[in-house]
User: Fold these one by one.
Assistant:
Number 1:
Amino acid sequence: MTKPMPPLPEGRSLPLANPDADTPTLSIIIPMLNEAADIQTALAPLQVLREAGTEIIVVDGGSSDNSVALATPLADALLISDPGRARQMNLGAEHARAAALVFLHADTQLPAGAVELITQALNTHCWGRFDIHLEGQSRWLPLVSRMMNLRSQLTDIATGDQCLFIRRTTFNTVGGFPDQPLMEDIELSKRLKALASPNCLRTKVISSGRRWDKFGAWKTICLMWRLRYRYWRGVSASQLAKEYRNAR
């Protein structure tokens, strides 16, 4: 069993290694699947970060639309992966050049100053996440956002919507995302939590509430809680993925 990461002495930090001026401090990895309608809008705000030296990697999981062509000029690397978000993010991490990895969903926007916030957070912790604000039509989304943030604060478990950021060495230590079709973010958080507590930033990412808008807020809330409960009880991610698809 891996020993927990000891707490840092008060007033001290462990800065991220950046031995080469040409090596990015952060690599932002974005899994993508059939996002042609929105991928340019998602990547446009990241161009300022690219110009400042942040690496942007988009990993496509077999899109049947024009996603790849639209995303290619807006990324430092466009990779093609087998389907599955965990596989896509692991492939992106394999090709990333930075000491810190940021896993950003295609429908999630980073806050202003994100690079500095993440870098500072990883100077004292080996992983972390943001709070989330869900944006959409349902009047229940503010409540859902608060519930997600509170649950994460109480459990030290993060979801992919909250934009996980991790030191590369730590990501490698836990073996990356588990190769499973659902709950890969929950499982990774559990493994990371066994090493050290996350740095839970109260600054919010903005994520699309399209799932709740499309399928109904309370139906989606009940579905996700039921799936998480069953996962906690030991039901396989593969079985839960089938139930998730059928419920939609």
Number 2:
Amino acid sequence: MTGDIIWPDGWRLDIEALPAGFYGLTDFQQRRSVVAAGLHPWLHRATLVHESIHAADGPVPRWLEGREERRVHRETARRMIPLGELVHVLQITTDARVAAAMLEVPVALVWARLQGLHPSERHAVRRAIENAAHAA
């Protein structure tokens, strides 16, 4: 698992209680990101990566926030699940829950990584799964 976290200069990161359903938030005016206290370590790390992407990329107009969340989620998955590790795990299992445990990431990131594959990456994944099926 990778997912290097790079924060822009002058940003502050806090860990604190957030409302139910919120794992993290980024306040661009205060140059501050918050990650919810008490998260599972895999979700904590994923949230740190996710919020660091928001901080680095800057704000978007309100009407683009939904699209931006989906983009940042896919980018988080890409950073945390390198293609080689994904291929290796998919040669062992195609169960997303098992793959997530092996990769030490939330299941939602496995799905996001698979949905966000570049066509060349999709070909590598398909080939790995087919080879594993033939070897079994």
Number 3:
Amino acid sequence: MRIRLFSKGGSSRKSGGEVSLIGAESVFEGAWRSEADIRIEGEFKGVLQTTGEVAVGEKGKVRSTALRARDVVVAGHLEGQVQAAGIVRITSTGRLLGTVQAASLIIEQGAVFQGHSEMCESMQEDVTIAIAML
């Protein structure tokens, strides 16, 4: 099954596996690790680690002391520390407050980024090791 998390034209990422969802009006607190893509339409507070993509929907709210993923797309509100092996994209409706370490950072017009960014070639090994340690 292939699912599009966010699409803008034909450049969306596709997942070859499952998508975990925190739906609107739902709140999750704690540590979450996964190998699936994760979509957040509700609220998440805690540590989040996945080898897949994390997508924060327009009404999604995330406060994370450590978020590690392959790619991260922020259309809602994300506050905290973000590490991505690939791309961190903040869409025109997104707000990211915190620290970003990624191979690529894309900030669309209208987006808000307040914090510090560090560009790294690739962090895939670090993400995989961190998940194995949980």
Number 4:
Amino acid sequence: MSEPASLNADGKQINNIRIEAPMPANKRWLCKRKALLFIVVLGMLQSSCTRYRDIDQIISQYDSTDFSSLRDRTVLFRSRGLTRASSIYFVGTYETSCSPYIVEVNDSEGNITEIRNHLVIESCGKDYLSKKEIELVVKRYLMFNLCSIQVDAEGNVYINPYEQELPILLRRSSGAGPRDLSRFSWYKGNWYVRK
């Protein structure tokens, strides 16, 4: 069976032109879904590779860093402050049932503008860190470019360089091992990554 001849804009006959019906909607949806899935998987692979490259960079940067001034302390970047050039941090001890102190820091000068202890008083009934201790912890923390640092009493260092979430890296001290080591997998040297 031969296809009907078609005419171009000049009125000349064009042979062998095939006009196909549009793709059904369900097939278009399936093609779009496959393309989207491909993009997502490609992004995950790229992110995964970047993550471990970043982890290697963090490890090399902080492998021999002395965190002893932060022993038994936790510092977490919480958010931008109420003023344009300030940030809010949570500061506390590593193992406590008490709430953390809310500390506002002037970003340009690096000094503390306010320490709020109302959550500490509500949860513990009294302060557990002095103003001087909080100032020293914050001053030391600001030297690092990390979102969260926790150091236990044995000197094991927990880090989340990027997010206000659970630490993703653990630098195990040469002393006693951390109690939660089973939540981490050995990565290299004395460094572990969260499972």
